Each structure stands twice: as C-alpha cells, then as structure tokens.
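Deliverable D4.2, example record:
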Amino acid sequence: MFGKKVKLRITFLSFTFVSLILIVFLILKSLEENVVYFKSPTEIKNLSELTNKKVRVGGMVKKNSLEVNAKEISFVITDFKNEIKVTYSGIVPNLFEEEKGVVAEGFIQDRKFFVAKKILAKHDENYMPPEVKKALENN
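Output generated by the structure prediction step:
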C-alpha cells in the first residue's frame, strides 16, 4: 500500500516520537527527586498524611517568638491563621528577624513542629543593601 520511502519516513517519525517521549519522561523523573514543595502553616495543618520529603514552609516570623540558644534557633512561622514552630541549627541570613518574611526548608516532624536545614529570608521589592543605601545618601 505505501511505498518504501513512505514506510521509512513513518518508521523514522515513530522512532523520533517515542524517543522524545522517553527523554521527557526520564528528565521529569530525575527532577522529581529535587523538587521542593512550598507550603504555608495552614496547608501543613490540613495535610492528610505527613511525608518524609523535604518541604519549604513560608510565612512571617511571629513577634516575640525568636529564641536563640547556643546551638540552635527556634521561632514560630505564621500565616496569620495557623502557626508552626521551627528549629534551626546554623547561621541565619542578615535579613532574618521578627515580623519579616521567611522561608524555611527542611522536614515536618508533626503538624506543629518543623526542623529546618536551611533558612531563606525574604525581603520586599523596596529592599536596598545598606552599602548601596549609604553610597546613595553620600551622593
């Protein structure tokens, strides 16, 4: 029914299509391990089941919740509906303080407790590094 050239083209296009699907599948599968999901304290409270996957919890650092010990820092992240207590061992970013936005990456212990492995401080779009602000004021 089809000529030799047409069969060869169909075979080539089929092979290319299958190869492309396989490549996309393998890329997505390998990226799946490195994906970190972002959740608010309310979303964590409403989870149906807790997993051991790495997650990011974001919100505001609650006022008067920051406790600094010799080995760790603990604080409460709130989204103004629910709260989650976070502990972290390590150096915090310069922008980290109470009543400021923060994203903590780590593992959920239970719906009210989170162990952070990394802290990312957030700033608004008006942020300017102190050095740049000082240089602008001098000029």
